[in-house]
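Section 5.1 Outputs to date
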Amino acid sequence: MRLYPAIDILDGSAVRLVRGDFASRTVYEADPLAAAGAWVKAGARHLHVVDLDGARGGEPVNLEHLRRISAELDVDVQFGGGLRSAQSVRDALRAGAARVLLGTAAFTDPDLLEEVLAVHGPERVLVSVDARGGRVATAGWTARTELSAQDALRSLRARGVRRFVFTDVDRDGMLEGPDLAEVRRLADAADAELVYSGGVGRLADLEGLARLRAPNLDGVIVGKALYEQRFTVAEAQQALEA
């Protein structure tokens, strides 16, 4: 499995939230490029970059940070946050993203999802399925639908999506570990590549995810635990590859 150190950008800084609460931010690095550079220097081969301002506002705000990271670092970047038009998707890819994530738009604008999948291909377009209490959350996690995460994955797979990111918002930033049984169920429901995010706090959490041996589980996003030096990038990658 692949390790994706997380860089969430809010008001120009690299931050982490707790359970998606914008009021409970912790600033870890004033410059997102510095945060990205630290992870790449430590051995990261992939990064998960989210424009939190864009996710909340509905259009990208931090593409310049994406450009700087992509231009100055030899690293694979997946980028999301506020990508709710074909133009914003093109702008993110032109700014250097290897892949883009659609979140809210995948649920509210089926024509857009169909268009970007057709134009850019399912390898470069992921859908972010984020859940609170088992129900899909949208609009930067500020709104919750009645759609279950498993039903959303199955429905989107039927519409041509081949890659997903799933975030357990209730566990995000809590460092209490993932629900391994739920991760396994979601990976099976997706029937496609799934990257997991939410609550990883110890190497044992990564080892537990690796032991699932779920063929569809492609990677894990880790943020707070890395920033707080609970383990290193190298240790995390070793746990996932064991």
